[in-house]
């Protein structure tokens, strides 16, 4: 490449393998870590300011987003709640993977439900709510327990209301008297009595060939993922097959390239899709230590048109989210087979600050490690781990 970039972006002149990630949080940072070993350059875009930044230390680079769009070999995103014009700008380059259609299905629960229904993929019984009358009707038809969700901008359990009684329905209808339903339609879902939550992380290469990580079992606290176990205990080949079939239908409908996460509710031997995420996903963080190629590396390989790395599990992993607490002291690092991933963000309640992957080769070994780590964690995180301790 001839001299195009200057200042702190001049390192890009030596390469022609720039990948752009829309969003500059921990997922962009971990994609960078997964890609850098392949000799690829990753630059993140601050979706609000539209500045190009270093995905690790967030330094603003001497590079305009237009230059980056022009010279990159691929564009991807770390989250789906992106400004529409930015998505359109990325789509217009023909380098955006997985692309605008997939982003829209992940960002808007109404588009997502329509997609699932059109593909005959089982999901939670639901109604679109555009007025308090719609909500009352949905309660009659799907109640007595509903979860009401904003159609857009919801994540980590934000933008949700639980409606478990007629009194609560009344309270929420009162609360929503002034709500602008035209701007933000809602989706009322039947609260499903599932046995457990699992997810499938699949990856599709540039020629449309799919591969899959094994199912992951997920545990939530306050609507937010707190813990994943992988490969999911007690999951047989048939469950994995069902999840893969769902994955393929969705990936093919979206003409997908890259990692696609599917959050599922397990009810006996049946699976219901909760939601999809058109990107790398928190429930796939275990792959950093559990597989030869992590979800981050494989997403980058896929969108860069490279052959995929192995998705086969090599170990058992428990992934613990470090939520709303400052960095732990080094005692955790003293434990063998415990891997801390820290995102270097300012501490805030409910904020994902980092995660710890606990790695073992047998269930007993994993349980023993979980007990040791449990005792070193702050109380708020111990509660989450207690769910699987012994
Ligand atoms: P995240 O960003 O963590 O994926 P989110 O804000 O997008 O969360 P959902 O995944 O829709 O929201 O819901 C969060 C959690 O709430 C689910 O993982 C599940 O535990 C619970 N939940 C959501 N919908 C239902 C439902 N219809 N029935 C029962 N539980 C539900
Ligand atoms: Mg979810």
Structure description:
The protein is 31% helix and 25% strand. It folds into three domains: 9-96, 3-Layer(aba) Sandwich (Rossmann fold), CATH 3.40.50.20; 125-190, Dna Ligase, domain 1 (2-Layer Sandwich), CATH 3.30.1490; 196-389, 2-Layer Sandwich (D-amino Acid Aminotransferase, Chain A, domain 1). The strands form three sheets. Strands 9, 10, 11, 12, 13, 14, 15, 16 and 17 form a nine-stranded antiparallel sheet that branches. The chain is α+β, with helices and mostly antiparallel strands and 390 residues long. The termini are far apart. The radius of gyration is 21 Å and the shape is globular. The relative contact order is 0.11. The chain has helices at 26-36, 65-71, 84-91, 100-107, 109-118, 132-142, 166-175, 237-253, 287-290, 295-303, 331-334, 363-376, 379-386; strands spanning 18-22, 41-45, 52-53, 74-77, 126-129, 146-150, 160-163, 186-190, 196-204, 210-212, 216-221, 224-230, 258-267, 270-277, 316-323, 338-342, 352-360. It has 13 helices and 17 strands. Magnesium ion is lined by residues 263, 274-275.
Between the first and last Cα atoms, what is the distance in angstroms? 57 Å
CATH fold-level topology of the largest domain: D-amino Acid Aminotransferase, Chain A, domain 1
What is the N-to-C succession of helices and strands?
A: EHEEHEHHHEHEEHEEEEEHEEHHEHEEHH
Q: What fraction, in percent, of the residue positions are helical?
A: 25-40%
Number of domain modules? 3
Report the strand count.
17
Rough outline: globular
Average pLDDT figure: 95
How much of the sequence lies in strands comes to 25-35%
Low-confidence sequence ranges: none
Largest sheet: 9 strands, antiparallel
Tell me the radius of gyration: 21 Å
Which structural class should the secondary elements be placed in?
alpha+beta
CATH first level of the largest domain: Alpha Beta
> What is the CATH superfamily label of the largest domain?
ATP-grasp fold, B domain
Distinct helical segment count: 13
Bound molecules: adenosine-5'-triphosphate, magnesium ion
């Amino acid at each position: 490449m001839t001299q195009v970039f200057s200042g702190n972006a001049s390192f890009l002149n030596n390469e022609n393998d720039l990948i752009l990630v829309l969003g500059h949080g921990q997922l962009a940072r971990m994609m960078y870590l997964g890609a850098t070993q392949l000799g690829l350059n990753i630059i993140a875009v601050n979706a609000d300011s539209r500045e190009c930044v270093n995905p690790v230390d967030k330094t603003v680079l001497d590079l305009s987003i237009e230059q980056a769009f022009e010279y990159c070999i691929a564009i991807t995103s770390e989250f789906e709640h992106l400004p529409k014009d930015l998505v359109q700008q990325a789509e217009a380059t023909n380098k955006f993977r997985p692309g605008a259609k997939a982003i829209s299905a992940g960002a808007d629960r109404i588009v997502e439900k329509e997609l699932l229904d059109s593909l005959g993929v089982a999901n939670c019984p639901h109604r679109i709510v555009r007025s308090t009358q719609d909500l009352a009707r949905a309660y009659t038809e799907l109640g007595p327990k509903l979860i009401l969700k904003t159609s857009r901008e919801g994540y980590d359990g934000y933008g949700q209301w639980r409606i478990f009684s007629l009194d609560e329905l009344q309270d929420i209808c009162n609360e929503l008297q002034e709500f602008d339903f035209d701007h933000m339609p809602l989706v009322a879902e039947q609260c499903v009595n599932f046995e457990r939550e699992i997810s499938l992380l699949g990856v599709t290469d540039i020629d449309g060939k799919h591969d899959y990580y094994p199912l992951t079992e997920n545990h939530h606290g306050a609507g937010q993922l707190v813990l994943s176990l992988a490969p999911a205990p007690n999951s047989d080949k048939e469950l994995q097959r069902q999840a893969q079939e769902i994955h393929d239908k969705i990936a093919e409908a979206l003409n997908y390239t890259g990692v696609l996460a599917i959050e599922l509710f397990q009810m006996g031997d049946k699976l219901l899709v909760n939601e999809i995420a058109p990107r790398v996903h928190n429930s796939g963080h275990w792959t950093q230590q559990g597989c030869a190629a992590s979800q981050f590396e494989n997403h980058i390989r896929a969108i860069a048109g490279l052959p995929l790395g192995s998705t086969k599990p090599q170990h058992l992993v428990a992934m613990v989210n470090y939520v709303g607490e400052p960095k732990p002291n080094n005692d955790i690092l003293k434990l063998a087979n415990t891997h801390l991933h820290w995102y270097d963000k300012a501490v805030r309640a409910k904020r994902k600050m980092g995660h710890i992957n606990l790695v073992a080769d047998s269930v007993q070994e994993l349980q023993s490690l979980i007990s040791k780590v449990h005792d070193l964690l702050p109380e708020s995180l111990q509660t989450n781990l207690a769910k699987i301790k012994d």
